[in-house]
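[INFO] parsing input record for NADH-quinone oxidoreductase subunit N
[DEBUG] input buffer:
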Amino acid sequence: MTQTIDYFAIAPPLVLALVAGLVLLLDAFLPRSSSLRTALGLVSLAGVVVAFGFVIAQAFAGRTLRTFCVPGDLAGQGPALCSFVVDRFTLVLAGLALVAGAIVVLLSMTELAGGGIPVGEWYFLLLCTLVGATTLPASRDLIMLVVALELVSLPVFALTALKRYDGRASEAAVKLFLVSVVSTAIMLFGVSLLYGMSGTVHLSRLGEALGATVTAGAQGTAGAQGIAGSAYFSTLDIATDLPMVVTVGVVLVVAGFAFKIAAVPFHAWAGDVYQGAPIPVAALLSVVSKAAGFAGLILVLLSALHAQAPTWSPMIAVVSALTMTVGNLLAMRQRSAVRLLAWSSVAQSGYILAPLAVLTEAGQRGPAAGASVAYLVFYAAMNLGAFAVVMLVSRSDPRNELDDYRGMVFRRPAAALALAFSLICLAGLPPGLAGLFAKVVVFREIVNGGLGWLAVVMAINTVIGLYYYVAWTARLFTPTVEPSGDAQLRGGRPTAVWVAVGATFVVALLFSVAPQLVLGMATL
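[DEBUG] output buffer:
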């Protein structure tokens, strides 16, 4: 069999992969200099922009793109099964990953200016992460899903370790590596169980087969004949063992994704890894890796495991409540800006998870996924804005503690106002209406879904979050008589970081003024 490939469908990850190879070649053959570091950054940025242009072109194509398909006659029955599908869900999350990737490239250009980090390897690994992040939301079989998720994860701990002779970076890389290995092992075990129960790797067929498994479990051994032809089923008591094995597989897959998005109780790595990693990598973890993790989780839960919703829905609700609560309580105790953003990111994961706990019709991503994706888009703009200003401050105050921001509005008013707006957005207070709209969308979905107790937990956590966001914002406007590092160090202007600050501020402001841009886009 010869499969045809739709190169237009795979254009965004293909462009990123080609540019990643080009960056390595340029780094190997061009003479090392400061201009080379700038050139490689611009080449990487251009690659991300071109890939985003293809995403826009796919959106205007007005049709769902499919490739890597198995014809219906070879699949055995029904329509063709495709491993790579570009639909509205794919376009939104791939576009989000690429825009966030462009901001991370801008932050990286400043991070690499000192010359202590290998530039070619850095941009190569960063682009590989973006290849995985744009491939994952289009993945429609378990094999491609796992490979894309690992392509997002593996380069990140290498990026963390590239800051050589830094003990904290090495420690963060080891912790991230161990977390990645454990989460992958857990997920693969769960995936193997689901494949063994269904006999297929394609998500749509997996949903049908596991739905039949649920029916068989209710009907007893008489219902087993249509599930699979494997002799393995003859060793099981269909009424009891089969549903139990599927339940274990579901729990393991959800646990694997929970590691990736730093959900409680798999969150302990976040604070140390964010603080030890270079700030662009922390920003990458907080947005791109998180978006990829949620994309995979949404696809698996709502496309493949919808028949098991009574099993995983209560679990997601409890994990969501614990994640937002623990994240907010830990963030209240922080004095480091990066650690505060790390635990804030954990709390935000809880808010994004909440709508997924609402039961939906079989195979329909609809309102639940739409609410989570909308919150994810709002959150990305706000959080990247905060990280951009933190990157700016880190150039003069390496400790980057909250007290270093005291009186910042009198020294760097533009950066201080941009940070204040991002923090107010994250808190959900006017004039940062982007965060308020994000929380309203999630709150409305869980209330309509009958999860009143989760809505109460979310409301309480929103109030808790106000404390540390407002406390940090207040420091920006508090006068100080002590000289500050960023008033004394007047080196070259970090132009790339200022571009990132300006871009994220404009996007967050636009989302606050016209939230329908996100709300309409995230209607899946």
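[INFO] Confidence is low (pLDDT under 50) at residues 221-239, 483-492.
[INFO] shutting down worker
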